[in-house]
Amino acid sequence: MTVDGSAQPGLIIAGAPISSPLKDVWALSRQMVGHFVENVAPCGTLPGDAIHGDVTTITRMNLEFAVSMLDGKDIPDKIERLKDAAAQWAREGVPIDTIHHAIHEGFKIGLELVVSGTAARQRKAGDGTMTITLADYQALIGGAERVVGMLDTMTTAVSMAYVRELKSVVSEHHTAVHTLTSALLGGHPTSTMARECGIEIADSYRVLALSIPPHPDESNPVLDAKVVARRKLRRVQAAVATRCGDTALSLLSIDGGTLLIPADTTGDGGLDELVGALAHAARVPITATVVTTGTDTIPTAADQAHQLLDMVARLHCEPALYRFDDLALE
Prior knowledge:
With about 325 residues, the protein is α+β, with helices and mostly antiparallel strands. About 60% of the residues lie in helices and about 10% in strands.
């Protein structure tokens, strides 16, 4: 049976089902996992319980799926189990390339077993030399087509489930970080929030107020201004994550916002480079101001930083990073 439910006959070659070498899924899955551990480098970084538990389980599921598809049997339930496993692996942080590499290695081993098993049956049926009938040849072609279909179905199912779950995890983390940042800016940080985010609250922060102007494409009547603005914001957020890692906290909109960077991770001199990198990512010139403060006075420092930013705007200063000393005279 195909993925869409249409029936297909099981494939027979040399008088036996083409899936015969794959029938003992329990023993074969253990053999494949042993191969993964030795030859698929990322698997060596997985804990033992994952290798002997999740990896073995998903390998066995893939074998069952392959046997079912070669035999023309029902497979939707096995696909759902594969999706569930992929989602679990995404939440546990197992790299998706490890999963795909393991699937392809499994297919390679399985295909070798099918071909070698077929050849052995052919020699046994003849005089010791390889002979192949037209029916057997057609079955081999059909088997190859189904293998390609299986690989497409499995990689698609794994990718979709993995990405969907990963988006959910990222969304949960983003919400927790947003809550922690709001608490810091409101003067009410809690250790519980920090633990939920997996982020340690620093003793002091560099508080940056950012002004991000519209991208020229936001005024292009041919384009959707909201989409262009959101893409600009995502590029800035990605640049913050790349440059500062998980320690940076931000509340940003398409127009700007506030960025909190632990003072011990970024020197004052590196802030100019950071703002330049954010402007490069946004593809618009960014104006920013910075105030360094202890954690307990972040709300006051944020107000001061945004007041300085308002002053920079009123003075029509060039886009750049400004500190209090730069504006002391004004």
